[in-house]
Amino acid sequence: MIEGIGIEHFLVVSTLMFFTGICGFIIRRNLITMLMSIELILNSVNINFLVFNRYLYPDQMQGHFFSLFIVGIAAAEASVAIALIINIYRSLQNIDVENVNEMKY
After folding, report:
1. Domains in the chain, please, with CATH?
2. In sequence order, which ranges of 28-95 are alpha helices (DSSP H)?
3. Tens of pLDDT, residues 78-95
């Protein structure tokens, strides 16, 4: 399955995903694209956990458990962020970061 693929291939893909997420978070001004960039960063971290667990400790499952924990945290973070974005859109009719400068009740 992944015997022919070396660790460096996974690390290159993970690094590209991580820096794409960082660039998307810094450059984009839309809250939805910023949220997707954060999810991209978290998925690249998941790849790192799984790859290092596979190559360093193939008989243990810590990388898998950390990845499942991150997926759960990412799901909770996404649901709260989407709820906040919906409330911001309802009040301002826009979800650009420049237009959201104060939080009101």
Report:
1. 7-96 (1.10.287.3510)
2. 31-56, 62-92
3. 999 999 889 888 888 888
